[in-house]
Write a structure and sequence with these properties.
Number of strands: 11
CATH class: Alpha Beta
CATH topology: Rossmann fold
Largest sheet: 6 strands, mixed
Structural class: alpha/beta
Strand content: 25-35%
Order of helices and strands: EEEHEHEHHHEHEHEEHEE
Helix content: 25-40%
Number of helices: 8
Length: 244
């Protein structure tokens, strides 16, 4: 049996006295495009950060490509929901996207032609090439988010991890972005934190419902009554052609 790309075993985590994750288990397979959904404060971003090795669980173990997350972080392209930038720092879109190549080049070494080609492929995929020389401080929120996504793609990762990656992005670019992810999914696993299951259900193959505890289902098996139990409120979800 092929080892999963990510193995999460009995993970628990607290912020002070607040229990956020309680005995969470999750396998992310190499053929997965999985959405993590749940209410605010349910632990979605916390679980993603544990998988990335950005924070340590209070209990349990995580293996990414068979190793601790701290050793494999460079193999994951991460797109955060928000990022803080110094508005006075003069850095262009192209320079930010090229930062995704830092794991491929030695410290102090110039970017190679291969690095620049990878960066421009990523910018083209997210319609950023006209903005390549524009400073980040001059961008809209949606343009900044697309820049962060391009930086992750430029790293040519073995897995993508995303936290609300299309926040502040208009619907046309959002559609294009997810179409691109569908193509990328053919060669890498993708894990996505989202609040909009109705939209992403057309793309993902599994859904992880998380509110301290986690339940994983095939996307076609998720129904409104399952979500009501998790959110603690009535839910009506539309998924393109069918009502769930």
């Amino acid at each position: 049996m092929t080892q999963p790309a990510v193995e999460v075993r009995d993970i628990s985590f607290r912020y002070g006295r607040n229990l956020v994750l309680d005995g969470v288990n999750l396998d992310i397979r190499h053929d997965d495009f999985i959405a993590i959904i749940g209410p605010n404060g349910g632990g979605k971003t916390t679980l993603l950060k544990i998988i990335l090795g950005l924070i340590e669980p209070a209990a349990g173990t995580v293996r990414v490509f068979g190793e601790p997350p701290s050793r494999t972080r460079h193999r994951i392209g991460y797109i955060p929901q928000h990022a803080q930038f110094d508005a006075d720092f003069p850095i262009t879109v192209e320079q930010v996207v090229l930062m995704g190549r830092l794991g491929h080049t030695k410290l102090g070494r110039r970017y190679t032609a291969q690095d620049r080609e990878a960066a421009h492929r990523a910018m083209a995929a997210l319609e950023l090439e006209p903005l390549a020389k524009r400073e980040l401080s001059a961008l809209s929120g949606g343009e900044r988010q697309r820049t962060l996504a391009a930086r992750a793609l430029a790293s040519e990762p073995d897995m993508l991890a995303m936290d609300e990656p299309t926040a502040s992005v208009d619907s046309r670019v959002e559609q294009s972005f997810y179409d691109m992810l569908r193509e990328l999914h053919a060669r890498m696993p993708i894990v996505l934190v989202s609040h909009d299951l109705g939209f992403v259900s057309a793309y993902v193959n599994r859904v992880a419902c998380l509110n301290q505890r986690l339940v994983v289902s095939a996307v076609e098996e998720v129904r409104a009554h399952d979500l009501e139990a998790m959110y603690g409120a009535p839910v009506k979800m539309w998924s393109h052609a069918c009502e769930l």
